[in-house]
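Support request from a user on the community tier.

User writes: "When I paste my structure tokens into the form, the page sometimes reloads and wipes my input. The last time it worked, I copied everything first. Here is what I submitted, just in case something in the input itself triggers the reload:"
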């Protein structure tokens, strides 16, 4: 069995007295594509923020590469190979596409490798090559999402965390984003995908977790969850 890269045990997080995450367990093994699905407000994004060190958790533990991340900042975790594409994308709007990609490699010093990886990103996302000198703030939402993913990949992550990558995008752009997530996973990057589009997320997932009101209510292979009557009724609209 593959090594466990990320292990969440009994995680509890509160916001202003409201328990947002109520003691969940979750595991991501090397090479897996894991989807965490659930409706808006289920606690998915809160879980992601705790995993990346940008939110303090009050109970339980999160282990990355076998060590607790408690007290570690997001910067430390990025250096150790944990990269996140946040909800809302967060690109540097006043920088060009190329400059955004260079920022993604800020923890690296291998100039030739960085240049090669920028070329590789342009191969994965041809639209970014076409606009490489354009300011990121002038791009469409879908193009910014591609840029945010490419920028995260520039840090050469062991685990890529994606928070609602398809949110607010056109159907064509949603297709492209899911295609890229699948390709990135096929290239050996471990992926944890948080997504409201349950059907698309489960179609590409090795395993999935269903989150509801701060708790994990179901887990199983992506294929099994896709055909589960409860999941169908609650999240797939039939």
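"...and here is what came back when it finally went through:"
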């Amino acid at each position: 069995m593959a090594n466990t890269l990320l292990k969440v045990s009994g995680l509890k997080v509160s916001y202003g007295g409201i328990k947002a995450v109520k003691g969940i367990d979750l595991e991501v093994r090397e090479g897996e594509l894991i989807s965490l699905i659930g409706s808006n407000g289920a606690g998915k994004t809160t879980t992601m923020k705790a995993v990346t060190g940008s939110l303090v958790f009050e109970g339980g533990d999160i282990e990355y590469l076998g060590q607790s991340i408690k007290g570690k900042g997001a910067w430390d975790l990025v250096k150790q190979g944990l990269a996140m594409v946040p909800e809302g994308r967060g690109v540097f709007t006043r920088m060009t596409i190329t400059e955004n990609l260079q920022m993604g490699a800020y923890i690296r010093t291998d100039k030739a490798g960085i240049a090669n990886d920028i070329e590789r990103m342009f191969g994965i996302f041809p639209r970014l090559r076409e606009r490489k000198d354009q300011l990121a703030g002038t791009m469409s939402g879908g193009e910014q999402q591609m840029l945010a993913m490419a920028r995260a990949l520039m840090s050469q992550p062991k685990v890529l965390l994606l928070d609602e990558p398809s949110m607010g995008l056109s159907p064509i752009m949603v297709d492209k984003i899911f295609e890229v997530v699948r390709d990135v996973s096929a290239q050996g990057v471990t992926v944890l995908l948080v997504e409201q589009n349950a059907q698309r997320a489960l179609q590409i997932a090795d395993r999935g977790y269903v989150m509801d009101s701060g708790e994990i209510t179901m887990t199983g292979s992506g294929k099994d969850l896709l055909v589960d009557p409860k999941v169908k009724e609650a999240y797939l609209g039939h």
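Agent notes: The reload is a front-end session timeout and is unrelated to the input. The chain is about 40% helix and 25% strand. Residues 90 and 148 are 7 Å apart (CA to CA). Escalated to web team.
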